[in-house]
Write a structure and sequence with these properties.
alpha/beta; eight-stranded parallel β-sheet; 18 strands; binds N-(iminomethyl)-L-glutamic acid; binds fe (iii) ion
């Protein structure tokens, strides 16, 4: 199908030459075309330009959209979620309000272990249906690609169950989906007091099975205070890499875990959370190809310190912002809200927030060649906003859905 969108008030994040990500000062200057058009053909972006210059042949396209007063953005890429889960955890959230910390709740068998219990009790079919509903919801908010982790199984049977659900979602969804194996998310009840025994099981049983069935693109470890150590993480990443799984890890949410260093050592695609990031870690990240990824939803919801985003960008680093959509620490996959939090809580400009939720997150999930910007030959994943004044309105109007029309693989979804 061909689709011609014209009279676009502003076409955002246009590239004539594709870049893999934007860092530091580059994030301040957003390339856009005012009063623009875009032509989509065979699921891809075929061409785009200014209304002053429209190729004659496009004018007779059967499918046309007049986008007057509206902006067109590349779809959000959400590079970190746990959106396959069973039930919800609002009762723990009340404990949190009453003063219990994330670690205290985890120690009581709440937190991740609570979700693990529910996953064990829930059928693969039900997990699939619930997750698919969540996918439909995030599509409405403008997401066009999403990474989904396992990590609530915590034994070979249920970790594989989660990953098979993600594989089915990949097959049926219009979203681009990447799967991450996160067996080392928490130590399960059965291995209480025997953390290294569980790490052995992840390495010797789970990784070979996950790779054998080709169920994951990436490997993750929750490398943090009270969870997995730098040494555990080192062993697991080393084993995963032998099976072709590139690391993307949880690091420095609860303390200076050494997670950033071990992530960079294994050339992780991203290190995520980063609430505890010192000058030393900024220096380590500067010498790497690893995308520093901040998860504003989790820090906001858990009332945790905020990662030093401004300092990191000012030091020349790129930043990605993802939702962390999960039932315990970030029960929302709304990337518009995440972008707004980037501005409100982390003092990122609207321009920085757009790079951080599109091309930089595309890089953090290994799809930057095909997603994350308006560039000829890239997959036509984009959204048309409601009538809005300009790009600044996106983080400003933080409570509303500004997306009016979603286009994925060149097709109008809604
Ligand atoms: O990214 N930090 C570790 N994992 C998740 C939380 C998962 C949960 O509490 O269920 C996170 O925030
Ligand atoms: Fe997470």
């Amino acid at each position: 199908m061909e689709l011609f969108i014209h009279h676009i008030k502003e076409l955002v994040l246009t590239e004539t030459k594709a870049k893999t990500f934007y860092a530091g000062k580059e994030m301040a200057i957003l390339p856009t075309i005012k009063n623009a058009w875009i032509y989509i053909e065979n699921e891809l972006i075929s061409d785009f330009g200014s209304m002053q210059n429209i190729p004659e042949s496009f004018k007779s396209t059967a499918n046309q959209i007049d986008a007057s007063e509206r902006l067109v953005f590349p779809s959000y890429c959400d590079s970190h979620t746990h959106l396959v889960y069973a039930g919800s955890r609002e009762i723990e959230y009340i404990d949190k309000i009453k003063g219990l910390s994330y670690e205290e709740i985890a120690k009581r068998g709440g937190g991740i272990l609570n979700s693990a219990k529910r996953i064990a009790e829930t059928s693969e079919e039900k997990l699939f249906e619930d997750a698919n509903e969540r996918l439909k919801e995030i599509i409405r908010y403008g997401t066009g690609a999403v990474e989904i982790k396992s990590g609530y199984g915590l034994n070979p049977e249920n970790e594989l169950k989660m990953l098979r659900v993600i594989k089915r979602l990949k097959e049926i969804s219009t979203l681009t989906i990447k799967a991450t194996f996160l067996g080392a998310h928490a130590v399960p009840q059965a291995f209480k007091g025997n953390q290294s025994g569980y790490v052995d099981q992840v390495i010797n049983e789970m990784i070979p099975q996950v790779a054998g069935e080709d169920l994951a693109d990436f490997i993750d470890v929750f490398c943090d205070t009270g969870f997995f150590t730098e040494e555990d993480t080192d062993r697991i990443l080393n084993a995963g890499i032998k099976y072709g799984l590139r690391p993307k890890i949880h690091a420095n949410e609860l303390g200076n875990s050494g997670g950033i260093q071990v992530g960079v050592k294994y050339n992780a695609l991203s290190v995520d959370h980063l609430e505890y990031t010192s000058d030393e870690e900024i220096r380590v990240l500067k010498s790497s190809e690893t995308m520093p990824t901040i998860l504003p939803g989790a820090a906001f919801f858990l009332n945790m310190p905020y990662a030093p985003a401004r300092k990191m960008i000012d030091a020349g680093l790129p930043i990605a912002l993802a939702s962390d959509f999960n039932p315990g620490s970030s029960p929302s996959g709304n990337m518009q809200l995440i972008q707004a939090m980037g501005s409100i809580l982390y003092k990122m400009t609207p321009e920085e927030g757009i790079f951080a939720t599109t091309i930089n997150t595309a890089y953090a999930m290994g799809i930057e060649e095909t997603h994350g910007s308006i560039c000829k030959g890239k997959q036509a994943n984009l959204f048309i906003t409601k009538p809005i004044p300009g790009i600044e309105y996106m983080p400003y109007s933080y409570g509303d859905n500004k997306v009016e029309t979603v286009i994925l693989k060149g097709k109008i979804i809604r």
